[in-house]
Amino acid sequence: MSGCKARVRKNRAIQKEFIESVIASLKREILEEKRIFNAEHNERNLAPFVERVLRDRMDKQIAIMETQKSTNFNNGNTKLNSNNNNNNTNNSNNNNNKQDTQYSAMDIQNSTMDSKNSTTDPHNSTLDPQNAMDQRNSMSDRELLHEMVSLLNAGFETVMFMTSLTLILLAIHPSVQEEVYNELQDVLGDSPDSAPTYDQLQRLDLLTRVIKETMRLFPAAPVIARSAPYEVQCGDYTIPAGASIAIFIYGLHRHPQLWNNPNQFDPDRFLPSQSSHRNPSGYVPFSLGPRGCIGSKYAMLQMKTTISTILRRYKILPGDKCKSLQDIRFEFGMTMRSLPGNDIRIEPR
């Protein structure tokens, strides 16, 4: 009998510990959501909203815990009676205890997901092409996990290419590199060991323009494919509905009607005074609209973090075979690839 009571107490302790860990995880999740939202919308104070949502979620978890507590207590009494009658029945009841704990965990998870989905804004009404309308209310955790893995893996090669090309162009243009280094000193501080914050990365205006100019000259995806949803008249050509269209991004980014001196490296092209009048469809390194690259912002953060970390510690110098922009060797494919010979040298600062 004492053994069964001990098992009941142990199950309750396990359930309580699990619920407390879920609540702590929810609190961290909500606070992180608040931090990210406030970073993008400083004018709105979400503290009352976060406190209310957290309180509601905790109330739900406590209600589940109380329900399970009552259920397990009754099950415990049944198991005590069964133990006096038959040892084999006691073994079966032990398995039931495990199932009760599993069911409790499933109930908590389902309640948590319901609560999380109830606070999600599916932005079902929007005209922003970069914030397309959701076609359904939510995604499952498994779908979100698959999207995150795809986001990380799909961007590895392209981000690596763009980062290396940016360093090569800075090596070829030492005056621009020095200006970028001075900006890093001003924004990030003198210590190269301090990790840049999200807000600091957003203030690196010159480095951002350098990366954008690199992507103009050497877009990681030189060609993208699209399908015409309806018939389009393009000059003397008629593109029928449903036709597959290949868009040559590399040529678009170097078209003389869109860019002055298109084959020169000039980050100042992306100053607000020079880019405000430009056709936005003339610069599409991440494509455009609802079919644009879902990882564009993440890719920019990756590149700015990596490049700033390197430049704060090392000076980048051109290699023996790559002393000008025209010396950069590459090949086209599904993505643009760097060829041997695009070397650089580094010196500690």
UniProtKB/TrEMBL annotation:
Cofactor dependence: heme
Amino-acid positions noted as binding heme in the UniProt annotation, renumbered to this chain: C293
Region listing for Disordered, in residue ranges: 66-100, 112-136
Keyword match Manganese: no
GO-annotated cellular components: endoplasmic reticulum membrane
Top-rank taxon, per record: Eukaryota
UniProt-annotated location(s): Endoplasmic reticulum membrane; Microsome membrane
Topological category with respect to the lipid bilayer: Peripheral membrane protein
InterPro entries per UniProt: Cyt_P450 (IPR001128), Cyt_P450_CS (IPR017972), Cyt_P450_E_grp-I (IPR002401), Cyt_P450_sf (IPR036396), Cytochrome_P450_Monoox (IPR050196)
Location (main, coarse): endoplasmic reticulum
Composition bias, Low complexity: 70-97
Keywords tagged on the record: Endoplasmic reticulum, Heme, Iron, Membrane, Metal-binding, Microsome, Monooxygenase, Oxidoreductase
Any one GO MF annotation of this record: oxidoreductase activity, acting on paired donors, with incorporation or reduction of molecular oxygen
PROSITE patterns in the cross-refs: CYTOCHROME_P450
Family per similarity comment: Belongs to the cytochrome P450 family.
Protein name (Swiss-Prot/TrEMBL): Cytochrome P450 4c3-like isoform X1
Gene behind the chain: LOC103519545
